[in-house]
Amino acid sequence: MPPENLKILQTKTVAVVMRVSLRFQSVVYLYLIGLIALAELLPAAYVLEGVLLFLFFMVFSGTIFYILLMLATRRSYPSEVSDDEPSPLDPLVYVLVPAHNEENVIGKTARSVLNQDYLNLKLFLINDNSTDGTRKIMEAIKRQNPKRVVVIDVPPDRGRKKPRALNYALELIEKEHEKPEFVFILDADYILPPDAIRKLVRIMEKAPNYVIGIQGNVRPRNWRKNFITKFITLERLAGFNVAIEGDMKLNENGKYGGTVALIRFKDLIRVGKFGEDAITEDTELWARALISGYRFWYYHGIVGWEEAVEDLRHYIKQRSRWAQGHLQVMIDYYWNVLRGCTTPVEAFVEHFYLLSYLVPVFWLLSLLLNGYLLLTGARSFGLIPPKISIAMSIVAFLVFWASIAYSNWIEGKRTGLQIEWSFIAAYPLYFSLFVFMAVIYTTRALLRLIAGKFHWEKTKRFT
Question: Where does the sequence pass through the membrane (predicted)?
Fold first, then answer.
């Protein structure tokens, strides 16, 4: 790439980063100015009471959120899942697997795709500037399957970030390949069951036109490894078996998780492909699709088996990136997402979803502030007494604990696989660790947004 072009690219990238960072800083500064103004105009007790009221209603909203979605999971899906036999006349599907330095996992992932019982598919292995043996493994897979595999090398000026690599592949498909009906997005460490793509295609064939894609389920395949992987599995269980499935059955809003997802090709192009400057391109695409009138569906019966991180340092690092991207989407799309919702219930659920990374912070602050007022005997206006707020925080915890137990029970009923109940029963003993980790990675995410640090951080592989 010519040096002058590289310089232009770097300048554009810096400009985008600064624009997003300044937008976030503006929100933070306006909020602080508002607090300072209120503190000057009103007595400190009024300001404290306002903060306590806000925290109480955030904790209360979280309680309603999980109760509502747990109840919603008892409903049926809007479409039946067909188990029709595969046919060469099935819609054409391109499986896109972006990979940067994935030599330890890319071979297994590719084999799981090529072992699908769906007949009309082609695998696109996207080499995103790998410096290890990823490219050689891709070429070996292509040699063994010359008609079913395409290897794409992403140029240095377009790569080193998942959405950019995906967009480059989509541009090549538009120019040089037959247009598919669907693209299936898959991360490089996932293993699929043989019927995954066929069943998701069958659902999408019967889905209304406003359904842009369907998200499959996700589980860690190394969930038995240690405490961290079991803890992550509990997150996945509650997140998919309660939050996402409940939203799907209640609002037909199943989210997009960035992997194990089948998307209509023409609609993906219509909404502008993937956001190249987004830290979490999945949440960003979900928001833009919703604003444009589309919905993502979800189906629990197709599970992509991922490799979860296995230590606390990489857990915090990964979740910090997710939180940063989520907060970026919240700043950019919050009001537009709410306006794109079709019912007040959907607006409430999506409002809470956009704020979800801040909720543990709010819960802890409410508990600490009200605990301090109760222990010291300090007086506030008492619109909501500290005892009531503390009781609400305890109820919120019990509801969240119940959602974890419920999601584990559902998993056992459906698949026969579940976390041992002694680990669920002991959840109160390590819940505080979850909250403090959430505060750490959310705070790190906020600081990175303010500082304008938007570079993509690759997840370490433990295989």
Answer: 28-46, 52-72, 352-375, 387-409, 421-441
Query: Which letter, b or e, does each residue of 40-54 get, where b requires 16 or more Cβ atoms within 10 Å of its Cβ?
Result: eeeeeeebbbebbee
Provide the pairing of β-strand 121-127 with 182-185.
unpaired
Contact criterion met (CB below 8 Å) for 423 and 352: no
Q: Which one-letter DSSP state was computed for residue 281? A: H
The residue behind tokens 């079913």 is 148
Percentage with pLDDT > 70 across the chain: 87
Sheet with 93-99: list strands edge to edge. 149-153, 121-127, 93-99, 182-185, 261-264, 211-220, 295-306
At 15, list the tokens. 């400009």
- Structural element, H or E, at residue 313: helix 312-340
pLDDT of 445 = 87
Token digits of residue 103 = 């030599």
Cβ atoms 282, 242 nearer than 8 A = no
The H-assigned helical ranges of 119-161 are 134-144
> 129, 157 in Cβ contact below 8 A?
no
Contacts of 300 (CB under 8 A, 6+ apart): 217, 240, 241, 245, 414
Q: What is the pLDDT of residues 160-191, one digit of tens each?
A: 889 999 999 999 999 999 999 999 999 999 99
Task: Give the tokens for residue 165.
Answer: 């690599």
Average pLDDT, integer, range 307-326: 91
- DSSP structural state of residue 356: G
The amino acid sitting at 463 is: T
Closest CA to 450 of 11, 18, 15, 10: 18
Strand partners, 219: 305
Domain 93-346 has CATH 3.90.550.10: yes
The CA distance from 269 to 121, in Å, is: 19
DSSP string covering 186-215: --TT-B--TTHHHHHHHHHHHS-TTEEEEE
Q: Which amino acid is at 338?
A: L
- Contact (Cβ atoms closer than 8 angstroms) between residue 286 and residue 261: no
Q: What is the pLDDT of residues 213-227, one digit of tens each?
A: 999 999 999 999 999
**Cβ proximity of 362 and 349 under 8 Å:** no
